[in-house]
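Hi R.,

Here's the chain you asked about this morning:
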Amino acid sequence: MQQARIRPDVEVLAAVALIEQLAGLTLERVLPDGLTGAQFAVLSHLERAASALTPGMLAQASGVTGGAMTGALDKLQAKGLVLASVDEADRRRKWMRLTSEGLAAQRACVAAARAPREALRQAFAAREFEQALPFLRRLVDFLEPGRAM
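And here is the predicted structure, written out as tokens:
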């Protein structure tokens, strides 16, 4: 029986998907307080923001649906890590910001992620990462939403 020939484009996309999955699992194993990678990402978006953000803004920045973001924000709110305030001009809109506990949790996540990141840096030469970047950036640009395929 002849083995099916695997196409390089399929192998690359499968490898990227597997890398994403494994990197996420590695991160989630070290995150404190039962936080998920998605919740850490939300905390980080809010930490970097100059002001409060709406759930819609956070969803767009994270590349997730509004419903997924609402679920993540609800869990973070229940843990006391984010605070929602109603927009006085448009009472349908909420503004999300970190609480002091949320900022502490975000910083604890960053600290917890240092060891796996350092292990990755030790396992591969900086040159290897640098050589992979041009192709990966072009792939991201090509796959960016709104581009006609």
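One quick note: The radius of gyration is 19 Å.

Cheers,
M.
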